[in-house]
Amino acid sequence: MVSQLQQRNDYSFADYSNSCWFIDFALLDINIADTNGSLIGRPYLTTAIDIYSQCCMGLFLSLKSPNHQAITQALRHAILPKSYDSEYNLRHEWITYGIPAGLQLNNSSLTNSYLLQDKLSQLGISIYSPKSGSRLNDSFTEKLFSEINRYLSSDALSNQISTDNNSFLTLGVLEKILVLYFVDNFNQQIHNDSSHQTRQERWESGLGSASKMIEENFIHTLLT
Question: In terms of domain of life, where is this protein from (predicted)?
């Protein structure tokens, strides 16, 4: 059975971690290259944000405009436990994972996708569609994507990429940079409504119960 779309004009129901995630998309202000150094375009970033804690749960990079696959790939990354090797140079761990109770997308046409609704229904995820004029998370993600673009245009980017002629900003390199940004920077920032907890700490303390059991093979198969 496909999940029934529910309209909400507030987020009072998002009162614990993984109660509802918000998925949004942005065209980044940076060009990437292939392994030969030829520019191939600007990538789209899809992020999954936990509304309660403001933690970034997962992401997906692609040269294609936002589509069904971008959502499912970002969801798969967000839902499953994450681990990274030493190449990522992380000081923290990306500890967030789990299956959200609800999901909201900043794209009405994708929200109405029967195939997407069917996949979410199999995971027990409800889709929340905001009423007109009540997209409370727009300003948050607009600020987030603005911060990311500033980060990518700063010295922080050049410091992480070798300047020799055999090194280019590929999609893979950019993914490493963004993982580092979200794990060691964004998720470690103080939550807007908390004077003492980081976003990651708020996510940890806000888990109402043990996370749902995740069958990784099922998630990989379903969210392709």
Answer: Bacteria
Helices (H), the chain: 68-79, 108-111, 114-122, 138-152, 155-160, 171-184, 199-205, 216-222
Contacts of residues 162-171 at CB distance under 8 Å and 24 or more positions apart, as own/partner, are: 165/37, 168/32, 168/33, 168/34, 168/35, 168/37, 169/30, 169/31, 169/32, 169/33, 170/32, 170/33, 170/34, 170/35, 171/32, 171/43, 171/61, 171/63
Q: Is residue 130 part of a domain?
A: yes
Q: Which residues face 130 on adjacent strands?
A: 8
CB-CB contact of 27 with 172 (8 Å): no
Domain that holds residue 115: 18-221
Inside any domain, residue 73: yes
Q: What is the CATH number of the domain that holds 36?
A: 3.30.420.10
